[in-house]
Amino acid sequence: MRKHTVTALAAILCLSLLGGCSNNSNSQSSAASSKAQASSTTAASSQAAGSSAIRIAGLKGPTSMGLVKLMNDSEEGKTSNSYEFTMAAAADEITPKLIKGDLDMAAVPANLASVLYSKTQGKVVVLNVNTLGVTYIVENGKAINSVADLKGKTIYGTGKGSIPEYALRFVLKKNGLDPDKDVKLEWKSEPTEVVALMKQQKDVVAMLPQPFVTVAAGQVENYRVALSITDEWAKQDKESKFITGVMVARKDFVEQNKDKVAAFLKEYEASIKFANENVEDAAKLVEKYDIVKAAVAKNALPKCNITFIAGDEMKSALSGFYKALFDLAPESVGGALPNEDIYYKQ
Question: 0.70 exceeded by the pTM?
Answer without folding.
Answer: yes
